[in-house]
Amino acid sequence: MRLFIGTEEECDRRAALEVVKQIKSKPDSVLGLATGSTPIGMYRNMAQAYRDGEISYSRVRTFNLDEYVGLAKKHPCSYYYFMREYLFKDIDIPADNIDFLDGTASDLAQECARYEENIENCGGIDLQLLGMGHNGHIGFNEPDTPFESLTHIVELTESTIKANSRFFDSEEEVPRKALTMGIKTIMHAKKIIFFVKGAAKAEVVRQVLQGPITPKVPASVLQLHPNLCVFLDHDAASKLNL
Ligand code: GLP
Fold it and tell me: Does 164 qualify as catalytic in the annotation?
């Protein structure tokens, strides 16, 4: 594991640099992308690298971690909409290269199987970006999700619904279900960037990186990944035993 601790801005820059390096060494890289407030600064830096002519995303393919059930792409709270706003509209990635879970699919189980198959057909994810929920969830893999899980439908926990309600007009509007890559899908990525910010997650960060590996803390599985880069701002790292 490589661990970088710095200011929020330093983390945004350094994490984006890892992505730029990846695309420079393999222009047709397959990226796994994440939503949430944490990666926004990193996405700004990734878009800047394109504007500066440093890299092109024209051959990159992307798969996002998750999507709410029932929200269409054009819904402002859908993760697709988020990605378009914070990254896709600012880079030269062709629309056909963006694969996304469709939370409005009539057969959700089939949609999950399609996603797994597409990831495999692309040769697997080269670099997966990953944030973390307050309860240690990755993607929408809530506590007690089996480490063997592939892309699947989840019932969101009350704590996640509450935490994510800040993006909606009210808590009632947060969908109760989502589709997410599974923990096994995530762990199959050749390299993972794990990015956490803020004092509110400091205790979970300690459990994730220095506690037992357990489905009770889904992100703790990352200790087993052979190519993990961790980026923490000073607050998120404040409870680590260094
Ligand atoms: C959601 C997403 C996760 C993300 C988490 C943290 O639950 N499904 O992929 O890591 O939010 O979000 P934030 O970075 O805003 O704390």
Answer: no
